[in-house]
Design a protein that fits this description.
five-stranded mixed beta sheet; 8 strands; globular; single chain; alpha/beta
């Protein structure tokens, strides 16, 4: 079986000399992050999803939160200095980021957007994020993710 091609997220980590491990799972269609974590035997608290939002100003933002939790839009807006933010429509995700729903990684997007990672990431030595393709998960140190995305670490969940 041929080795699968590297994603933009993987190339981004390698370019920045960030250690990571990859895991794949059979994903014929989109599944939520909790189910993906269960398939891989991961703790959902250590598994993070990537959300993309737009602020009242028109600027876009990336939020990285545990898969089982929901973003608190007031906290998320305050974290980036906006009056309010709302998630972008799923139809706009690929055009804006280069990724599809269920495979959106906070790494290697078409542009560098202001990124905020939920503070619980600091509770772990390693966390899981999307690898940039449905069925691909990357494990890395949260400090490395924070560093390469120049992220703020804030409580942004309900």
């Amino acid at each position: 079986m041929a080795k699968e091609a590297k994603t933009n997220a993987m190339r981004f980590l390698e370019k920045n000399k960030i250690a990571y491990t990859e895991e794949t799972y059979d994903a014929k269609e989109f599944t939520d992050g909790v189910h993906s974590a269960e398939i891989l035997g991961h703790d959902p608290d250590r598994s993070f999803k990537t959300l993309v939002a737009v602020g009242k100003s028109g600027e876009h933002y990336v939020y990285v939160i545990p898969v089982a939790l929901e973003v608190d839009f007031k906290k998320a807006a305050k974290a980036v200095g906006e009056k309010n933010v709302e998630l972008i429509h799923v139809k706009d995700l690929t055009k804006l980021t280069g990724y599809i729903r269920g495979g959106c990684s906070p790494l290697g997007m078409k542009k560098n957007f202001k990124t905020v990672i939920h503070s619980s990431c600091l509770d772990y030595d390693k966390i899981y994020i999307s690898g940039g393709r449905v069925g691909l998960t990357l494990e890395l140190a949260p400090k490395d993710l924070i560093k390469v995305t120049n992220a703020d670490v804030v409580d942004i969940v309900m």
